[in-house]
Design brief:
This protein is globular. It is built from eleven helices and nine strands. The C terminus is likely disordered. The longest helix has 20 residues. Helix 3 links the parallel strand 2 and strand 3. 39% of the residues are buried. 45% of the residues lie in helices and 11% in strands. Helix 2 packs across helix 4 and helix 5 runs antiparallel to helix 6. It has 330 residues and is of the alpha/beta class. The strands form three sheets. Strands 1, 2, 3, 4 and 7 form a five-stranded parallel beta sheet that branches. A two-stranded antiparallel ribbon has the order 5-6. Strands 8-9 form a two-stranded parallel ribbon. The protein has two domains: 243 residues, Glycoside hydrolase/deacetylase (TIM Barrel, Alpha-Beta Barrel); 65 residues. The structure holds zinc ion. The site of zinc ion (ZN) has 5 residues, from strand 3.
Length: 330
């Protein structure tokens, strides 16, 4: 860390330590998806290895990092120590095992990985199919009038990013089969052949991450929007995803993350009941906030700050932990 980052870490450690002595302790849960080996020009704000290592060095120096299961134990007993933090990853990207894991291990950190089992061993999530179609297309423009969009340019990286940004929301909430057909249609429109098959983890990678002391959590089989499918389908998705993971790691899977994770939009109270009834110990949403002992352990919020500089990123994380309702400027 730079001297400025070290100072920020020291100040935040002291401030959060003091804060923890005057109010009940709070839990920050970070959420990551991909950690690219090198920066992805299409997604310059997603972390790459170098950026992730800087963030994790700061986290290791400032917070007490634990798995979600360990944090839930503390919340149940109301013994959460000050500066508690959980690092989570959603979906099961191979770069979590190949890029993030060595960094975490080097820093002595453990994390919780929520994995959708339907994409393991060569599968691909629908949103990545969209991204890879647009990335690989040799066309200068594509016609998406069938989706209520104008003819879109693919001439520059920014054009391609805009195309992804407008197309994904158009098909995100379609029924699963319609969405898959829309992706195949896009592949045809973009004139792209084979798409990558190494984006997601292998079962062996899941097993070795668990053996390295990390926690594996359930995230359904096919990553559906739970509100868009029937209660029976929701139960199958959650139960089957969990049992597939349990047979891979040969250990119980006790925690769950709701796909997409926005209450009311992606899941509702009936889905929380299903997760509880299936015997999980807790679950996380993507609602921002901080976890407390008094919270519903089946809807713990998660929050990942933004900002290029570590002091700004760490400041936002500390503000979230103290639940202060104002922001710091970038
Ligand atoms: Zn997800």
């Amino acid at each position: 860390m730079t001297p400025g980052e070290k100072l920020t870490s020291l100040l935040l450690r002291n401030a959060l330590g003091f804060f923890g002595t005057v109010v009940s302790s709070r839990l920050s849960i970070l959420i990551f998806h991909r950690v690219h080996a090198v920066p992805d020009p299409l997604f310059p704000f997603e972390p790459d290895a170098q950026r992730f290592e800087s963030l994790m060095r700061f986290v290791a120096a400032t917070f007490r990092v634990m798995t979600l299961g360990e944090a839930i134990d503390h919340l149940v007993r109301d013994t959460l120590p000050p500066r508690s933090l959980v690092i989570t990853f959603d979906d099961g990207y191979a770069d979590n095992a190949e890029v993030a894991l060595p960094i975490l291990q080097h820093l002595g950190l453990r994390a919780t990985f929520f994995i959708s089992t339907g994409f393991l061993d060569g599968g691909r999530m629908w949103n990545d199919s969209v991204i890879e179609c647009v990335r690989a297309s040799l066309k200068e423009t594509i016609d998406l009038a069938a989706y209520g969009l104008e003819r879109l340019s693919l001439r520059t990286i920014d054009d391609r990013r805009r195309c992804i940004d407008v197309f994904l929301p158009r098909i995100k909430y379609l029924p699963l089969q319609d969405r898959l057909e829309a992706v195949l249609d896009l592949q045809r429109i973009c004139g792209v052949g084979d798409l990558p098959t190494t984006l997601m983890m292998s079962s062996d990678q899941v097993r070795s991450m668990h053996r390295a002391g990390n926690e594996i959590g359930a995230h359904t089989v096919n990553h559906p929007i739970l509100k868009a499918i029937s209660a029976e389908e929701v139960e199958c998705e959650i139960r089957d995803g969990r049992s597939a993971l349990e047979s891979i790691i040969d250990a119980p899977v006790n925690v769950f993350a709701y796909p997409n994770g926005k209450l009311g939009q992606d899941y509702d109270a009936s889905h929380v009941d299903i997760v509880r009834r299936l015997g999980f110990r807790g679950a996380v949403s993507t609602e921002p906030g901080v976890g407390r002992a008094s919270d519903d352990l089946f809807q713990l919020p998660r929050f990942t700050p933004w900002g290029r500089s570590i002091p700004v990123w760490g400041g936002r994380l500390a503000l979230n932990q103290t639940n202060v309702g104002f922001d710091v400027a970038s």
